[in-house]
Give the backbone structure.
Amino acid sequence: MRALEALTREASALANGTRTGGAVIPILSAREAEVGRQMQICNACRYCEGFCAVFPAMTRRLEFGKADIHFLANLCHNCGACLHACQYAPPHEFAVNVPKAMAEVRGQTYADYAWPPALGKLYQRNGLTLSLALAAGLALFLILGVAANGSLWGNALQGNFYRLFPHNLLVGLFAPVFLFSALALAMGVRRFWRDVTPATGGAPLSPPAAAEAADAVLRLKYLGGGHGEGCNEADDAFTLARRRFHHLTFYGFLLCFAATSVATLYHYVFGWVAPYELPSLPKLLGVAGGVSLMAGTAGLWWLNRRRDPLHGDAAQKPMDLGFIALLFLTSASGLALWLGRGTPALALLLCLHLGAVMALFATLPYGKFAHGIFRTASLLRHAIEKRQPSPIGLGAE
């Protein structure tokens, strides 16, 4: 009778999401349970074991808890290779579609780990229309402010936009938004790291693991489809286009950030005040970054619009396109500002550029930019985990 009562209490505790001792049992959402189901099938098949980091990591597990699923979902690069190679893909009754299942959970993790938590729902609303409306609204606000002073059109600025918006005013506007975005992303990935660390062996980060993960990030190694020929986009054909456009976007963004950083050093350390002209280092970095960013985002937009819907989560497409559009507008308006610096349109172009940059900064913690941060954390944990003995005693690596 006591045993029956104990089983009853245990069943009640499980139904409420706790153990009898009071410890919380993470209850899987429907999307997480679907990833777990598909991983069990993939673990029995293992045909795709050499495709990317997901499948070697999968073979180190016999069951898939919440933290395991979050780790694997962010490790997935959504290249599509496993879907096109899978004998159990739809219309098979097993309906295995790893890229789609992983993408759905990945989007859920961005919202779950958002900081502050109350802002997690912004991921569901951060679409193309909202992103463009925010950029346009901020630009219009600046345009109206400048027009009220009678300096929206003309040559009075003589190529120096600090005559319109003083340097300290720009710092006061943008620094708080940028610092909040950086803090929000850091807090979110800190929670993610804390949760997935026990599920990936618990070992600390080592220099070899950090070097391996950095190599995978900088080369976008897992956008090669496991064989170096690239992803599957609209059909079964392999293409490196997605990897190349990602490289242009990624390094274009880094070059633009480097240009801003160098210009900050010029201003505060050496006292060299903008605007800077060619061949100054900030201008060289900014122009190269802007051109690269424009080309990369235009290519990613084209690929996103024509990609097979089975390759991802259709609900996230507005968020994807919104982020791409803001990156493109930021780079395009920046280049237009440089080319039009000696024309009467300088003030108007400056307002458009500042509006795009402010909108980009404001949405960074709650948009597609987060995928790069969480994926890097997952790659680091994978590089750490693979150096540990297999917990199930099988040679998975």
User: Anything to note?
Assistant: The chain has two domains: 2-114, 123-372. The first strand starts at residue 231 and ends at 232.
